[in-house]
Amino acid sequence: MIQRGIATFGLDFGKCPPWLFERMVALGRQMTLAIVAEEGPEEYIRRLADPAWFQSLGTVLAFDWNASGLTTILTAALKEAVRGQERDLGVFICGGKGKTSLKTPDEIKVWSERINLAPENSKALVYNSRMAAKVDSAMIQDGFQIYHHSFFFTKSGAWTVVQQGMNTANQTARRYHWHSKNVKDLVCEPHSAIASQIKIKSVLDLTAKASGKNREISKELVTTQGFNTLMKDFIILSKYITPLSQTADISDISGQQRMKFLNLENLEFRAHPVINEDFSKSKYLQKILWRLAENKPESYEKLLATEGVGPKTIRALSLVAEVLYGARPSYQDPARYSFAHGGKDGTPYPVDRITYDQTIQTMKKYVQKARLPYLEKQHSLKILDAKIKSEKNHNQPF
């Protein structure tokens, strides 16, 4: 059972040595062949959506390279490992780091044509890839900028997204996992996992169930009020939001507006950086809001999917929905556990020894089945045995 949560890793600015990457590709190819033969392509990509399993696979392939580079190098190695064998394996890997991530839709379309995937299924895969990136960059505003996006899929339509964001201020990276079977609603708690070494004090999390009313009001702002009324709301906010955030002086506001502004008594909101923005002066934001008011999206998902809608649009609508209409979103960081298996100090919870041991034993089974040179196989098994010993002696996480 994949648990929901977020994994954070130290930000790594180094490069993977060519000799290491070559070995990762070779070992990754054999591990992938063994896993797919044993459990099938759908199970293979489902496991990649489990952060504990993903991290342990990276540890085996990367020989303990487990900073932020593990995510980008591991996915690149797996993509290279299956090159030329995608059809036989039934596993297709698209995207990657930086500019490569922008090629994901085109790569999905190319593979869809090669395997004669129905056009509607191809469009659905492209849409899910795009929406996963939008949700993690616009709906979860946690200070981590998405710079890596990988999309794994099978001919049956199963898919997994592994993407990573960086926070240069605190030198950390955060990884987001999605899997098609776990997604009941693209905009409401869709993740298989997000895992964190640190918690951010104030995060605008519009994917939380607690943010449901805010999402609903945000959609209604552009579908029922119209552009002109919405801009009046922003003018009101720009005039009063800064003094309210500092002194809550509402003596010159009367009637219904005064009642609306009483929502600012929430101290968590006052601490959020969103209060320092003046949305009424952004010409580009006005252009997007006009487009939304004209299109009248029938759901919040369609609002988010609209071209041009990004973090600022989502943030602006959320602010109006909260301050003027009382629809408070969640400001709690969705991080739920640290690394893969807890922490040695019991924070945020003690190491899960059962899951830890099961993950390692599963990896050992795949290594044994992989067609590897004897010395290479023994080296990988030695790494896993060292993990077991480390856990027993020091209660350390991966």
UniProtKB/TrEMBL annotation:
PANTHER family: BLL3834 PROTEIN. This is DUF763 domain-containing protein.
